[in-house]
Specification:
The protein is α/β, with parallel strands linked by helices. Helices cover about 40% and strands about 10% of the residues. The chain contains 13 helices and eight strands. The longest helix is centred in the N-terminal third of the chain and has 18 residues.
């Protein structure tokens, strides 16, 4: 049971060296690691880190958020070479979106990453959405076709895609990193992009820490089991967003949230920033002792199947579509004066 539980946990750690506790975690069955900007001092150092992790466990899922635009880990110091979802939606060229996703996947494969926690499948609804430029737009049909294209492009390189944040974080006005948002408007309006992702063969879907009924969606069986599994027919990996986010941890704490997520139908959980070995071990013990063995086995089997599928094909990245699409997305109206003080310092890290 301990190994099954470990297969379902995806922790992180700072730096480009594997800590001893992470080696022990992987040796004990750990399913993988989530990588952040703090793991990427350089391209070569990230590649070395991924190789070191795979030396501990070859059948490993190494996940990262590489959406393009505002959310990049590979190029956090300079900004992404690829336009974000809002720009891709504005251009509305699905072939370009697919080509850009394939190129991003090639770059991930080149350093050993085989799971991209993208695309964002949320539909922006309010005037000032939390998701913002990370979404393809506010029209569900447009978002759906670009989500499909991003999934196809990513998975053409055998890098697993992950549509997020189910059942749709676009129609919210709070940040689930800080509190539990409540879904505004009709639940049905946010579902078409996820249905399109499933139709395109997406290998994983990430849940949102948002209130649809009384509970956060991540721990709500009605959302994960009845809606995503039964109605939409998704049989891939369901990944819970980071458990330390206040949208779920403020209600339950990390361990209880993890147990409830697995019981609701999630297969894997992220434990990210400021979470160490003790937290991971307590979570593993809680899953092993409180989640039904058949449910835990099902979840671990799905994670193992994803790892077996995600075997990236080495192909060179092609940024030409990114440059052309970014150019098409930019429109300048009126007179623009750029003085010396307003110029961007290309050497300054982007937060």
């Amino acid at each position: 049971m301990n190994e099954l539980a470990a297969r379902c946990i995806f922790p992180s750690f700072p730096g480009a060296d594997v800590p001893d506790w992470a080696r022990r975690f992987l040796a004990g069955g750990g399913g993988g690691i989530v990588l952040f900007a703090y793991n990427v001092p350089s391209h070569d150092e990230l590649a070395a880190l991924c190789a070191a992790l795979r030396a501990e466990r070859p059948d490993l899922l190494l996940a990262i958020d590489e959406e393009g635009g505002d959310v990049t880990r590979l190029e956090w110091q300079t900004g992404s070479s690829y336009p974000g979802a809002a720009a891709l939606g504005a251009v509305d060229d699905v072939e370009a979106t697919e080509a850009i996703a394939a190129s991003i996947a090639s770059e991930l494969a080149s350093v050993g990453v085989n799971w991209n926690l993208a695309p964002v499948a949320d539909v922006n609804v309010p005037a000032n959405p939390v998701i913002g430029s990370r979404a393809f737009g506010s029209d569900a049909t447009l978002v759906a076709r670009h989500v499909s294209a991003f999934v196809r492009g990513t998975q053409s390189r055998r890098v697993a895609a992950c549509a997020k944040h189910f059942p749709g974080h676009g129609s919210t006005e709070q940040d689930s990193h800080l509190e539990l948002p409540t879904l505004r408007g009709d639940l049905e309006c946010g579902l078409p992009p996820f249905a399109a992702a499933i139709e395109a063969g997406v290998r994983s879907i990430m849940t949102a820490h948002i209130r649809v009924t009384e509970l956060p969606a991540t721990v709500d069986q009605a959302v994960i089991g009845a809606l995503l599994r039964e109605r939409l027919g998704f049989d891939g990996v369901v990944l819970a967003d980071a458990l330390e986010m206040k949208g779920v941890s403020a209600l339950f704490g990390i361990e209880e949230a993890g147990v409830r997520a697995l019981q609701a139908g999630c297969d894997a959980v992220i434990v990210g920033h400021d979470v160490g070995e003790d937290d991971v071990e307590r979570l593993r013990a809680a899953l092993a002792s409180r989640v039904d063995e058949a449910r835990l086995q099902e979840a671990a089997d799905r994670v193992a199947a994803l790892a077996a599928w995600a075997q990236p094909q080495a192909r060179p990245a092609d940024r030409s579509a990114a440059v052309e699409t970014a150019r098409r997305a930019v429109r300048v109206e009126g007179d623009v004066t750029l003085d010396r003080a307003a110029r961007i310092d290309e050497q300054r890290p982007v937060a």
